[in-house]
Amino acid sequence: MAGRHRPPPPSRVPFVAVVAVLVAAVAVVLYLRGRGSSAPAEARSGASPPAGQATPQQPLPSTSSSPSEPARSPSPSPTPVHRGKLIIHGAGDTNFDPSYIPNLRTFGYDYALSGLDGLFKRDDLTVANFECAVSDLGTAVPKTFNFRCDPNALPALKAGGIEVGNLANNHSYDYGPEAVVDSRRNLEKAGIAPVGAGKDPAEAEEPALFEIKGWKIAVVGIDEVVDPYPEAVAAPGHPGTACGHDVGCMVREIRAAAADADLVIVDIHWGVELDTQPGSFQIEQAHQFIAAGADIIFGGHSHRLQPLDVYKGKPIFWSLGNFVWPSFSVEGSTTAVAEVVVKPDGTMTARLIPAYIASSGHPVLRGT
């Protein structure tokens, strides 16, 4: 229409400006996010360090029950065991029945060990075979010889240096099961450790344990001489002596003792009366004992002194003969004390110290 003008097109500047502002804002956001993701690796949780760099260890949470409880110190290293030299003695058949050895009633029980010049008092451990029931209880079982030792003699034997009394022999059961249990109790009261007999097999086979000069020492008693009275062997619920003819029992007893000790001493009643040499079966058994952990073997029963042998560095005293015993003959009175010296490194030397039963119940040293 004449005289009228077309209105100008709407301006696009404002729209373009808005778009530009939006683009700039997005760019700023992306830039800032990129800056955050490029922070140093060690400041980000879970990041791996550069190759060759140790991974820092995170502190473990405290196990203390209280925040104020001080930190526990690490356990100290075990202290090395320092072992000293040991001197150990073994004595043969020891009987303190005053009706069998009247000298003990006449001269007193101190008389029994008075001929030894204090030998047992100067050592570290002495083991003796107590060939009797050390009890006033019980009734004599039917056999040829029944020995009842006086419990009142025990303080003198303890004062003389005997620490272990072996009850594993063919006379501990002379007055039946009640006397076996009482014998063990009487030895304990006197401070002498009993081995080889008890209220049941577990107690009869239980070792006497000692800790001396850094050594753990176990002493066990074994009674292989039970004929003609096999009832003397301990059974479940039945007091008696250890093992009888059961060699497997003997080996188990020794092996169990060796598990708790550095040194195992076996006092065994075996062999044949009046024999002067061990039998082949004894030699075989002794080797089994040593394989099971025995270090020293004191034997008895033959009433005769037998030789000393060494097997794989372990001494075997086949029979120590009589000790505190009547003087019936030169052969029966010729005896000895077993002596073993154990060095700190565990090596041993052994010897028989000659002695003689000068009068009944009175052994006297003839050597040093």
The backbone outline, from C-alpha atoms, is globular
Low-confidence stretches: 1-21, 26-74
| Amino-to-carboxy terminus distance | 157 Å
CATH architecture classification name? 4-Layer Sandwich
Structural class: alpha/beta
Task: For the structure shown, list the relevant keywords.
8 helices; Purple Acid Phosphatase, chain A, domain 2; alpha/beta; disordered N terminus; eight-stranded mixed sheet; 368 residues
Could you please describe the fold and organization of this structure?
- The chain is of the alpha/beta class and 368 residues long.
- It has one domain (86-365): Purple Acid Phosphatase, chain A, domain 2.
- It contains 8 helices and 16 strands.
- The chain has helices at 13-37, 102-107, 154-159, 176-190, 201-204, 247-258, 280-292, 330-333, and strands spanning 86-94, 125-130, 164-166, 193-195, 197-198, 208-212, 215-223, 240-241, 263-269, 296-300, 308-311, 314-317, 322-324, 334-342, 348-359, 362-365.
- Strands 1, 2, 3, 4, 13, 14, 15 and 16 form an 8-stranded mixed β-sheet that branches. A 6-stranded mixed β-sheet has the order 6-7-9-10-12-11, covered by helices on one side.
- Helix 6 (247-258) runs parallel beside helix 7.
- The radius of gyration is 42 Å and the shape is globular.
- The model is unreliable at 1-21 and 26-74 (pLDDT under 50).
Write the layout of secondary structure elements.
Elements: H1 13-37, E1 86-94, H2 102-107, E2 125-130, H3 154-159, E3 164-166, H4 176-190, E4 193-195, E5 197-198, H5 201-204, E6 208-212, E7 215-223, E8 240-241, H6 247-258, E9 263-269, H7 280-292, E10 296-300, E11 308-311, E12 314-317, E13 322-324, H8 330-333, E14 334-342, E15 348-359, E16 362-365
